[in-house]
Amino acid sequence: MHRESPMDRPQDSSRLERRLERERRARLRAEAIAEQATRQALHDPLTGLADRTVFMDHLTVALAASEQHGRSLAVLLIDIDRFKLINDSLGRDAGDELLVAIARRLSRAARSVDTVSRLGGDEFAVLCLDVPDRPTAEEIVARFSAAVGETMRLGSTEVVPSASIGVVLASDLGTADAVLRDADAAMYEAKRHGKARFEVFNEAMRTEALERLETESDLRHALERGQFVPYYQPVVELDTHAVVGVEALARWRHPTRGLLAPREFIPICEETGLIVALGRFMLERACSEVERLGLRSRSDIPLKLWVNLSARQLAEPDLVATVAQALTAAGRGPSTICLEITESSLMSDFERSLANLESLAELNVGIGLDDFGQGYSSLSYLKQLPVDTLKIDRSFVSGVGSDRRDTAMVAAIVGLARALGLTTVAEGVETPRQRDELRRLGCDLAQGFLFAPPLPAEAVEELLERGLPAPPLTSAQAARAR
C-alpha cells in the first residue's frame, strides 16, 4: 500500500491551483460573454446607442423621479429628413454610414445627464434631465439640430443632413408610452411645416394625432365602400376661354365629415401606401367617366384629361400596363391623357421613374411637369424627361402682373417652354389681372377659380354646354377691330 509522501503534496497543490485558475478564467470569459450579449441585446448594433427598451426604462424611472422630486425633463424625438432618398439614391451602406455619423454627433451634443437612443430606422430619441423651462429646452434642441446639420461626405457625395424634432416638456407627466406618443405628434407637426425644424407638443397636436389615426382607419375602407369620387377642374385656352381639358382631383365623401379635399387625406395615403390603390382608381374612373359622358370641347375635340401620379405610382413596375389597361377599357386614345408628375415624386427612384415615363411617352401618353419652378433641379429634369407640358407653380402665378419678380419668372418659363416646343399651363389663376398678364406673356392654358373650381362630372358637362364668357379683347385685338 502506497503512503502519501511529503513529495506528493506540492504537486497536488499545484494541480489544484491550475484547475482553480482555469475555472476562474472560464467564469470570467462566461461573464464577459454574458455582459456583451446583454449589452448587444439592449444597444443598437449599428450605432452602439441605447435601444428602445433601454430608453423606455430610463424614461419610466425619470418620470417617477420627476413626480417624486418635482424635477422637470424633456424628451426629444429626432427624425432624419429625406433619409429614404439617401438610402435609395446612394445605397444602404451610405444610409448606415449617415446613421452612425448622426449617432456620434448626437452623443457629442448630449450632456452627461442625457440619454441618447436609436429607436429604429432613422428615428432617434434623447431623454434630457433637469430641464427647468422651455427656453432651456429650446437651447438644447438648437444644439442637437446644429450637430445633425453639419455637412458630411458619403462616398463622393456631399450631404447636409437635417432633422425634424418633436419636443415634450414632461412637467405635467404621464406614462413613458404617452410621452413618446406626444413627442411623435410634435415631430409630425415639424415635418408637416416644412422639416428641418422643431415643434413643442401641445394638446391640439394630440387631438390632431387622434383625428389622423381615425382618418387612416377610415381610409382603409373608403375605396371598397366607393367613397372616393373624381372632381374635375377645367383647363382653358387663355386666348379664347375654350375648355380644352380637365384635371381629375380626388374627393372623399366621408360618411360623417362630408366632402373632404385632398389635403385632408392624400398625405396619409402616401404615408400608408394606400396612394397606389387610390391612384389606380382615379386613373380608371376618370378615364371611363370622361369618355362615358362624352365630354368634348366646343370644337368637338375630346377633352384632354390630366391625372396626377404619386411618387409610389411612378416607381411601380406595372405602371405602364396599368395606364394602357385604363385607356383601353375606357376606349380613349393615349394622346387624350396627360400624366402629371412633380420633381419630388421623381426623387425616390429616378431610374425606374424615368424608364416608366419613357415607355409611356412611346405610347404617345402626354407627360406634364407639375409645379414647375418650385424645385431646385427643374431645368435638369426638363433636360432628361420626355415632358410635353409645363404647369407653372401657383406661387409664381399669384404675383404675376403685380410682382416684378414673379412676372419675370413666369415670362422666363413661358419663353423656355416655347423654345422647347412645350405647352404651358398656369395654375391657380384667380383674378382677371393675372389672366390678362398671362395672356400678354404668351402662356397657352390656365386653370383656377377665375374660370371654375373643381366640379363633379355632371357639372362639367353643363359648363361645356353653356361655355365660359369670352375673354376681353387685348389692346392689339381692340386696335385691329377699330
How many angstroms does the end-to-end distance come to? 144 Å
- Note the overall shape: elongated
Number of helices: 19
Number of strands: 16
- Top-tier CATH class of the largest domain: Alpha Beta
Can you name the CATH architecture of the largest domain? Alpha-Beta Barrel
CATH H-tier superfamily of the largest domain: EAL domain
Structural class: alpha/beta
What is the average per-residue confidence, as pLDDT, rounded to a whole number?
86
Helix percentage: 40-55%
Notes on the structure:
By secondary structure, this protein is of the alpha/beta class. The protein folds into 2 domains: 52-201, Reverse transcriptase/Diguanylate cyclase domain (Alpha-Beta Plaits), CATH 3.30.70; 212-481, TIM Barrel. It is built from 19 helices and 16 strands. The chain has helices at residues 8-42, 52-69, 83-90, 92-109, 134-148, 176-192, 203-222, 266-272, 275-292, 311-314, 319-330, 343-346, 350-362, 378-384, 394-397, 404-420, 432-441, 457-466, 475-481; strands at residues 73-80, 115-120, 123-129, 152-154, 157-159, 163-169, 198-200, 228-237, 243-254, 258-260, 304-308, 337-341, 366-372, 389-392, 423-426, 445-446. An 8-stranded mixed beta barrel has the order 8-9-11-12-13-14-15-16, surrounded by 4 helices. A 5-stranded mixed beta sheet has the order 2-3-1-6-7, with helices on both faces. A hairpin with a 5-residue loop joins strand 8 (228-237) and strand 9. It is elongated and about 110 Å long. The model is unreliable at 37-41 (pLDDT under 50).
